[in-house]
Amino acid sequence: MKKIYIRTFGCQMNVRDSEALLGLFLEKGYAQAESEKDADVILLNTCSVRAHAEHRVHSILGSYKKLSAISRQPSAKKNKKAESLPKVRLKAESCKIIGLIGCMAKNVGEEVAKRFAHVDLIVAPSRLHKIPEYVQRIVDQRPKTKDQRPGLRIIDLEDGTREETFYSAEYRQDKSHAQVVISTGCANNCAYCVVPFVRGALRLRAPQDIIAEVKRNVAMGRTRITLLGQNVNDYNFIEAEQSGTKRGYTRNHPTSHVLRPTSFVDLLKMVEAIDGVEEIEFLTPHPKNTTRELFKLMAKSKKIKKYLHLPFQAGSDRILKLMNRGYTKKEYLELVKDYKEITGGTIGTDIIVGFPTETDEDFAHTKEILEKAQFMGAYIFKYSLRPHTQALKLKDDVPAAVKEKRHAILLDLQKKISAIEADKR
Ligand code: SAH
Ligand code: SF4
Ligand code: F3S
């Protein structure tokens, strides 16, 4: 029996993607390996959101070289012009299959292919559903005798709609909790963020597919549900028109009339109405289109957890504008105030320090939001310049030491606030 090992980096979306993929392999008869050494297929499901995340994966990929003995054509070594010869990847049947998948594959897949001859498979997030088929093709191409033949390498960096079958396997790590993807990609263009590039255009799963997945999980005892999307508030599903032609980002779904779109709040209500669902969470809402209607539903609901993860990123209006976030400090603080008044719930956030041109005065506004909003917890990041982002146009001019200092100040402040908030509960 072949064994697979999937190592995951990055956000909950990646955690869920790895789980769904593992489920597909288990259905195909694979077993889960205990470690890389024990595996026939190793997949790294990766994150590109900050440079640091990518550096780690580069060194892990380097270390896999010894796990996947690869030899070049002997004649190529002796030939003086060896460097100009096409690299022929000779892989024996016993070699492990190594794949770089997910966000980093899209971001730096081509470079990785050049640098690491032992990597067999490079697949972007939109194409994860193709991986079992690709692995099978690579296995089929491996030599059955001792003779070595070139190993097949597959690189698929297309953007596109994932096939629904990707979510079909019932495997979950948790007995009582299921994460359910409602959308892939992102339609926002926060200036610092590589996610819209690596994850592609926003695409929505149809409400009936989401509901069916929730019901399958509830039937298996997973009564706590987390709905996942980069900005869940962007969920607004429109059925395709009569002709059956694709419209917007809907599935090809012939109906005789155009129905009212299903908003995120509608979707939450549909999930809430499912018998057996006990708790509902969602990740991540964006402040620019988080509505009071959502808060009212949260207040009324017995199932939706009264916790909101609402990243504010920066406090200064000038920086928020440069970041292209679509709200001001005042609007954000009002949203938080209304949320707390309406739901009585708790709140968390993400913050970036050291965005290009951020001054001490700008930073003081970030501190002010932290002090006023009283978050349960905050993920605080130092700005990292990313390819394919608008902020590339701006010079990364906040010195590393200043970023470090601001990061430490916020961590320290938030630690105190978190302790106070935890005491209140
Ligand atoms: N879609 C989610 C998550 C985005 S990535 C959202 O909009 O909240 C998670 C967090 O990483 C972001 O909220 C942001 O705080 C951080 N982040 C994204 N790009 C970054 C960059 N270039 N440098 C530092 N932090 C970044
Ligand atoms: Fe990135 Fe903004 Fe999309 Fe979140 S909403 S994934 S921060 S572009
Ligand atoms: Fe990272 Fe991709 Fe998530 S870049 S944060 S794993 S969407």
Structural write-up:
With 425 residues, the chain is of the alpha/beta class. It is built from 13 helices and 18 strands. The strands form 6 sheets. A 6-stranded parallel beta sheet has the order 2-1-3-5-6-8, with helices on both faces. A 3-stranded parallel beta sheet has the order 9-12-15, with helices on both faces. α12 runs parallel beside α13. The longest helix has 25 residues. The relative contact order is 0.09. S-adenosyl-L-homocysteine binds next to β17.
Keywords:
425 residues, binds FE3-S4 cluster, binds iron/sulfur cluster, pyruvate-formate lyase- activating enzyme, 2 domains, six-stranded parallel sheet, 36% helix, Rossmann fold, binds S-adenosyl-L-homocysteine, three-stranded parallel sheet, 18 strands
Report the CATH topology name of the largest domain: pyruvate-formate lyase- activating enzyme
Name given to the CATH homologous superfamily of the largest domain: tm_1862 like domain
* Separate helix tally: 13
Category by helix and strand content: alpha/beta
| Helix percentage | 25-40%
Q: State the CATH class of the largest domain.
A: Alpha Beta
Q: What sort of overall outline do the alpha carbons produce when their principal axes are compared? A: globular
What is the makeup of the main sheet? 6 strands, parallel
**Averaging pLDDT over every residue, what do you get?**
91
Low-confidence stretches: 74-78, 82-86, 242-252
**Strand order, biggest sheet?**
2-1-3-5-6-8
Say how many strands there are. Answer: 18
Bound molecules: S-adenosyl-L-homocysteine, iron/sulfur cluster, FE3-S4 cluster
The amount of beta strand, in percent, is 15-25%
| Count of individual domains | 2
For the terminal residues, how far apart are their CA atoms?
49 Å
Radius of gyration: 24 Å
| CATH architectural group of the largest domain | Alpha-Beta Horseshoe
